[in-house]
Amino acid sequence: MSMKGDFPEAIGAPGESASAICTYSGAYVDVFNPDPATIHLTDIAHALAVIPRFNGHTREHYTIAEHSIAVAELVPWEDGLWGLMHDASEAYMCDIPRPIKYHPSFKAVYEEIETALMAAVCDRFDLDHTMPESVVHADEQALSTERAHLMHPVTERWEITKKPRSHLFKHNDPERAFLSAYYAYARS
Question: In which domain, by residue range, is 108 found?
Fold first, then answer.
C-alpha cells in the first residue's frame, strides 16, 4: 500500500533524544517521553500490519493489526476505536511475548514504557485513558481464538480463560483493513 503524500512532516531530528525512533512516516517518537503530536495513524497501521503475533511462532502469518481488528469487532461499537488501538504502543515497542513481558525483572520497565506510549496514543486519538472492560475481555477472547487456530496444538502451559471462537479474523491487506476500521470507528 503506497502512502506517499500521506505522511506528516518529520517531527524531531536524529540525535534529539537517544530514545527516539524514526517511524515509517519519518516522524521521530521518543519512546520514553512520547509526545502525542508525534503519534501518527499511518505509523501505527503500517507497523502493526507487519509485526507478527506471538513473535512469529504461528502456523501461518498473523499480525498485530489483524488481532487489533478482531478485538475491535468483538466489542460494542462505542468501544471499537479503543479495541482497534489497544495495542498501538506495540507499533513503537513491538509485541513482546507474555513470558518476557511479565517476567519480574522486566515487567515494571515494560509497563512504564507502555503506559507512557498508550497515554500519548489516547491523547492523540481522543480516547479515555482507561481501557474499557469490554476491550480487556475481547483481547482475551481474541488470544484464545488465535491460540486455537494459529499455535501448535500442544500448549497445555497456557491457561485459557475464554472459549475460542470458531473462526479467525484474517485480512489480505491488514494495513488497509486497519485504516478502514479506524475511519469507520472514528466517524461515529
Answer: 20-187
Report d(CA 150, CA 171) in Å as an integer.
14
CA distances from 41 to 45, 58, 157 (A): 6, 27, 36
Could you read off the pLDDT of 133-177 as tens digits, one per residue?
Answer: 999 999 999 998 898 888 887 655 666 667 777 778 888 999 999
β-pair partners for 29: 21
Q: Is there a domain that residue 123 lies in?
A: yes
Torsion over CA: 176, 24, 47, 111 (sign): negative
Which DSSP category does 87 fall into?
A: T
**10-24 pLDDT, tens digit each:** 455 555 567 899 999
What single DSSP character describes residue 63? B
Residue 109 C-alpha from the chain's centroid: 18
CATH number of the domain bearing residue 98 = 1.10.3210.10
- Residue 27 to residue 29: CA distance in whole angstroms: 6
Q: How many domains does the chain have?
A: 1
Task: Note the pTM of the prediction, 2 decimals.
Answer: 0.87
Distance, in Å, from the CA atom of 115 to the CA atom of 89, rounded to the nearest integer, reads 8
